[in-house]
Specification:
By secondary structure, the chain is α/β, with parallel strands linked by helices. It has 10 helices and 31 strands. InterPro entries: FUC_metazoa-typ (IPR016286), GH (IPR017853), Glyco_hydro_29 (IPR000933), Glyco_hydro_29_N (IPR057739).
C-alpha cells in the first residue's frame, strides 16, 4: 500500500464513526436480571453464557427501528468521512448473509435485511467511505476460535481450523460482495500466529488492493496503527494512526451506562487527535431494535455543526509543527497557514511560542468580520519567537479557530519548553531512546518491554523561569483488555537514576498517586522522585537510567513521562518569565 493511497483512503478523511451492533445490543448489558459492570459487547464472555443459549437470541432478533438512511444521516451530520460497521464481533455472529456459516443475521433470525448491504449503499450516496470491523481471533461461538473456555476445552482447540473454516471464507465474502471497502478493522490478536496474520493481510490486498488493514491484525502487520482504546497519545507515532473512542464507557449498547462524555469533550478530543496527526474514530452503539441513543445523535450533530464552520482547520491539514500541547488549545497546519484552535473559553490572550515565520494577517473562521489583534516578536539571537493573540469575547462554548496566514512556508522551533504555568512535560514519544532495540514506545505512548536495567531515555528542553522543580514520573497501568471495569496491572519497585543540570536523583518507582485524563480509560501511577534546581534560563538535558527493574509480571518499567513542576508560587503571572521558543 503506497503512502499516497493511505492518505487518500484514510489520513485525509480525519474523522470516522464506528458502530457496534449485534445480538449483544438486545441484552443492553443485562443477563438474567444481572447488570454487567463490563463493556456490553463482551457480555457473552463476562457472563459465561453458553453458546447454545446465546444462539437463541438470534431467533428473537428483529430490529424494527433499523433505518440505514437515518444512521448514515447521523454520520453525515457529524461531519465524519468514513464509517466502520461490525460485520462480526467476538460473539461470532455475522451481521450479514454469510454463505459459509449459517450463524448470521439472515439465516439464524427472522430479519430479512442485510445490514451491510443497506449501509454500504447509503454510504456511497453520501460519499462516506464504507469500512468493516471483523474479529479475526476471538470467536466465542466457534469451537476453535479464541476466548470461549467454558464451552470448549482450550487444549483441544486448533486455531487453523477456525481460520480456514470461518475467517478466510467470511473475509472473502465481505471483500467480494459489497463493493469497495475502505478498510477492514481487525481486533484483539491473542492466539493468531504471524503466519496467519500475514496470510490474512495478503488476502485482503489480493481481493481489494486499495482496502487498508488496521494495526490490530497481529504481529505488527497492518497499513496503519491504533492507540489503545480511548487513549490519546502525547504526539504523533511516525505513521498513520487512529484513536478509537467511545461516547460513554461501552461500545455496544448498555442500558445502565450513563457515563456520557459531553459533546464539548468529544469535539475537543477530535481536535487534539487531528492536531497530533491522527484520525478520530468515534463509536455509536444502537440498541437491540436499531435505535441510536439520543445522546449520540446530539453529540454527533454538535461536532458536525462546528466542523461545518471550521472545516479548513481540520480537513486537509497536517499536525502541529510544535512539540507538546498548549494550555489554551491546539494547532494544525495547512500550506502557509496555521490554525490555532482555542478550546479554553477563558483564554483571552493566548501566546504561541516557537513560530519563526512572520505573520501577515489572521482571521476567525466562524466570523470573518471579527477583529483579531496580535503582536509578534522574532529575535533569533535571543531565541525569542513569540506570537501573542487577543481572542474576541466568546459568544458560545464552542472552540474558536483562528486562521494565521504567514504567506510563506511555516518554520517552527520544536524544542520542548517550559509552559507558562511553570511545568515542563517530557513525554516518551518526544525523547531520545537508547534501547539497543530491546524496548520502545507502545500503542499507549509508554515504554514496552523495558525488562532489564540497561538503556536510557533522554530529553532536551528549555527552561524559561529558573528555580527548583518537583520531579514526578508517570508509568502506565495497563488493563488486560482495555475494559474500564477491568482491574489495572502494574509493576513497581524499579530503582531509577535521574540526571539533570549536574544533579542526580535516585528513586524507587512506587505509586504515590494515580492520574488519568477526563474521557480516557488509561490510568498512570505517579512517583514523586524529588527536586532538581535549574539556576538560569536556557537549554538543559534530563536522562533516566534504570539501575534495577522488577519484571516478575513481564511488564517492567512502563515509563510514560516525566513532569517537572516549578515550585515558584505563580510562575505564570511572574513578570520575570522570559519568553522564548517552545
Amino acid at each position: 500500500m503506497t503512502e499516497q493511497a493511505i492518505k487518500d483512503i484514510f489520513t485525509n478523511r480525519k474523522f470516522g464513526i464506528f458502530v457496534h451492533w449485534g445480538l449483544y445490543s438486545m441484552l443492553g448489558g443485562v443477563w438474567k436480571d444481572k447488570k454487567t459492570p463490563y463493556i456490553a459487547e463482551w457480555i457473552m464472555k463476562r457472563s459465561r453464557i453458553p453458546a447454545k443459549e446465546y444462539e437463541q437470541l438470534a431467533e428473537k432478533f428483529n430490529p424494527s427501528a433499523f433505518d440505514p438512511a437515518g444512521w448514515i444521516e447521523t454520520v453525515a451530520r457529524a461531519g465524519a468521512r468514513y464509517f466502520v460497521f461490525t460485520a462480526k464481533h467476538h460473539d461470532g455472529f455475522a451481521m450479514y448473509r454469510s454463505k459459509c456459516n449459517r450463524y448470521n443475521v439472515i439465516d439464524a433470525s427472522g430479519f430479512n435485511i442485510d445490514p451491510i448491504e443497506a449501509l454500504a449503499d447509503q454510504c456511497r450516496k453520501r460519499d462516506i467511505k464504507f469500512c468493516l470491523y471483523y474479529s479475526q481471533d476471538q470467536d466465542w461461538h466457534h469451537p476453535h476460535g479464541t476466548g470461549n473456555d467454558w464451552d470448549f476445552d482450550p487444549e483441544k482447540k486448533d486455531f487453523s481450523i477456525y481460520f480456514e473454516e470461518k475467517v478466510k471464507p467470511q473475509v472473502t465474502e465481505l471483500l467480494s460482495n459489497y463493493g469497495p471497502i475502505g478498510l477492514i478493522w481487525f481486533d484483539t490478536p491473542v492466539q493468531i500466529s504471524r503466519r496467519h496474520s500475514k496470510e490474512l493481510f495478503e488476502l485482503v490486498h489480493r481481493l481489494q488492493p486499495d482496502c487498508l488493514v488496521n494495526g490490530r491484525l497481529g504481529h505488527g502487520i497492518g497499513d496503519y496503527g491504533q492507540t489503545e482504546d480511548n487513549d490519546i497519545p502525547a504526539g504523533g507515532t511516525g505513521q498513520a494512526w487512529e484513536v478509537p473512542a467511545t461516547m460513554n464507557d461501552s461500545w455496544g449498547y448498555k442500558t445502565h451506562d450513563r457515563n456520557w462524555k459531553s459533546p464539548q469533550l468529544l469535539l475537543n478530543q477530535l481536535i487534539e487527535v487531528i492536531s497530533k496527526g491522527g484520525n478520530y474514530l468515534l463509536n455509536i452503539g444502537p440498541d437491540g431494535i436499531g435505535r441510536i441513543p439520543t445522546q449520540s445523535i446530539q453529540s454527533a450533530a454538535y461536532i458536525g455543526s462546528w466542523l461545518k464552520d471550521n472545516a479548513r482547520a481540520v480537513f486537509g491539514t497536517k499536525p502541529s509543527p510544535f512539540t507538546g500541547d498548549f494550555e489554551w488549545g491546539y494547532v494544525t497546519e495547512s500550506g502557509q497557514r496555521l490554525y490555532l484552535i482555542i478550546t479554553d473559553p477563558d483564554a483571552g490572550r493566548i501566546e504561541l511560542s516557537g513560530l519563526r515565520t512572520h505573520v501577515k494577517n489572521m482571521s476567525l473562521l466562524s466570523n470573518q468580520t471579527a477583529n483579531i489583534s496580535f503582536n509578534q516578536q522574532i529575535l533569533p539571537e535571543k531565541s525569542i519567537y513569540m506570537l501573542s493573540v487577543d481572542i474576541p469575547q466568546w459568544q458560545t462554548q464552542r472552540p474558536l479557530a483562528v486562521e494565521v496566514n504567514c504567506g510563506e512556508e511555516i518554520s517552527a522551533d520544536k524544542t520542548i519548553t517550559q509552559k507558562h504555568d511553570g511545568k515542563i512535560s517530557l513525554e516518551v514519544l518526544n525523547s531520545d531512546i537508547d534501547s539497543g532495540g530491546d524496548f520502545k514506545p507502545g500503542t499507549n505512548s509508554s515504554i514496552e518491554s523495558w525488562l532489564k536495567p540497561k538503556g536510557s531515555v533522554k530529553w532536551s528542553f528549555r527552561v524559561l523561569q529558573p528555580g527548583r522543580f518537583e520531579v514526578s514520573i508517570l508509568t502506565s497501568m495497563p488493563r488486560a483488555d482495555g475494559d474500564p471495569a477491568s482491574p489495572v496491572d502494574w509493576e513497581g519497585g524499579h530503582k531509577i537514576k535521574i540526571s539533570a543540570a549536574g544533579q542526580t536523583l535516585y528513586t524507587e518507582i512506587k505509586k504515590d498517586f494515580e492520574e488519568t485524563r477526563t474521557g480516557s480509560h488509561a490510568v498512570y501511577a505517579g512517583t514523586r522522585a524529588g527536586e532538581i534546581a535549574f539556576d538560569s534560563p536556557g537549554l538543559y538535558e534530563l536522562e533516566i537510567e534504570p539501575e534495577h527493574i522488577n519484571a516478575k509480571k513481564g511488564l517492567g518499567f512502563t515509563l510514560r513521562s516525566v513532569l517537572l513542576s516549578s515550585l515558584i508560587a505563580n510562575p505564570r503571572g511572574s513578570d520575570k518569565l522570559i519568553k522564548a521558543n517552545a
